[in-house]
């Protein structure tokens, strides 16, 4: 993503200079860049422990999406059971055999690439003023409050219940409309399976969260090569708002998930989507299915692009634990009720800090 952002302080020794930040892409393409500006440098303690486990014994669960439409009830029952285990034990899972053609996935990556290749002047048109504007591109996460900047540019667009899209580059609107529609249908089937896995009716989440008016936000994250990747972060450890996040990548790794007290590399599977549970699934399940910390690291060789879609309730839905899932022995409901759009604004207006936003609504 690249957009002209507010002036951000960069610290050089004891002197603080102010530098107008444009985009990480522009910075990374500077011919004389051999080290990152100090304003992008994280200390070891700030970037959390660096130990990463990459063994295959901790493989991310894989869900075969085609089994949801199986005429064999045992096969559907098995995939619902697998989905329950993935949500309970990991909060992350890969989805294969989802039906989206590889050509459509590639077209989406190409379309976002063309957007990031626009001039700074063109991208400035879509900068946005508020964290919940329907179209917003920028850099870092929220430069007005970030103490250290992240090695990331982004474009965020609301694609449902109303569809929004930048007017440039040509053809972007058609590609994103088709892509986001397929992902929305994918999310509906997954949420139906999750409802079943909780002992609820298949359509429970859809009705309770008013998913016909679901707030769906499509983001594209650009992580250019970084000359000192060990000092920078693409995104800090955080959990996602919403019910589910459905993510596509361009084949370049960099996503890490917190599991079993350690960071685990998520190796991209060709043509697969990566799905993770969000804060609002944790709230409505009263903590049975928890959102999980994840982060983005960068490299010094290749540009990584990730395209997550946040699938949330309708903006005006008040999210609270489902009555059937509240266990009196666990002191009843564990989260206060809050309107989804209020939670989203709370998270997006502050520095991203683990699951701190979710902590605010815990009882």
TrEMBL record:
Transmembrane parts of this sequence: none
Domain Fe2OG dioxygenase: 213-313
Keywords per UniProt: Iron, Metal-binding, Oxidoreductase
Matches recorded under SUPFAM superfamilies: Clavaminate synthase-like
GO molecular function, one term: oxidoreductase activity
Source domain of life: Eukaryota
InterPro entries tied to this protein: DIOX_N, IPNS-like_FE2OG_OXY, IPNS-like_sf, Oxoglu/Fe-dep_dioxygenase_dom, Plant_2OG-oxidoreductases
Gene3D superfamilies associated with the record: B-lactam Antibiotic, Isopenicillin N Synthase, Chain
Pfam families, per the entry: 2OG-FeII_Oxy (PF03171), DIOX_N (PF14226)
Name of this protein: 2-oxoglutarate-dependent dioxygenase 19-like isoform X2
Organism encoding this protein: Rhodamnia argentea
The organism's taxonomic lineage, starting at the top: Eukaryota, Viridiplantae, Streptophyta, Embryophyta, Tracheophyta
């Amino acid at each position: 993503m690249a957009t002209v952002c507010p002036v951000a302080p960069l610290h050089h020794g004891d002197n603080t200079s102010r530098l107008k930040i444009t985009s990480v892409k522009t910075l990374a393409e500077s011919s004389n860049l051999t080290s990152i500006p100090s304003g992008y440098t994280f200390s070891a303690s700030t970037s959390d422990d660096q130990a990463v486990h990459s063994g295959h014994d901790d493989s991310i669960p894989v869900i075969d999406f085609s089994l949801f439409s199986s005429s064999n009830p045992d096969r559907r029952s098995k995939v619902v059971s697998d989905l329950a285990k993935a949500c309970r034990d990991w909060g992350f899972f890969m989805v294969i055999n989802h039906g989206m053609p590889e050509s459509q996935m590639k077209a989406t990556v190409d379309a976002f690439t063309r957007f990031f290749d626009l001039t700074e002047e063109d991208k400035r048109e879509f900068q946005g003023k508020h964290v919940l504007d329907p179209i917003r591109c920028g850099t870092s996460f929220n430069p007005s409050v970030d103490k250290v900047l992240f090695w990331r540019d982004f474009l965020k667009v609301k694609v449902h219940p109303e569809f929004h899209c930048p007017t440039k580059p040509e053809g972007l609107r058609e590609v994103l409309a088709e892509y986001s529609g397929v992902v929305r249908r994918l999310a509906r089937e997954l949420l139906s399976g999750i409802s079943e896995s909780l002992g609820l009716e298949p359509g429970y989440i859809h009705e309770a969260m008013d998913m016909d008016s679901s707030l769906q936000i499509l983001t594209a994250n650009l992580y250019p090569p970084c000359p000192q990747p060990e000092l920078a972060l693409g995104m800090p450890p955080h959990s996602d708002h919403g019910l589910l996040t459905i993510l596509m990548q361009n084949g370049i790794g960099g996503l890490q998930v917190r599991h079993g007290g350690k960071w685990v590399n998520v190796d991209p599977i060709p043509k697969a989507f990566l799905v993770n549970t969000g804060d609002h699934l944790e709230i409505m399940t009263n903590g049975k299915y928890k959102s999980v910390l994840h982060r983005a690291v960068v490299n010094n060789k290749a540009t990584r692009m990730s395209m997550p879609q946040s699938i949330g309730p309708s903006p005006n839905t008040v999210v609270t634990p489902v009555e059937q899932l509240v266990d009196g022995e666990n002191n009843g409901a564990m989260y206060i009720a809050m309107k989804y759009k209020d939670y989203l604004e709370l998270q997006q207006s502050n520095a991203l800090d683990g699951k701190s936003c979710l902590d605010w609504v815990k009882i």
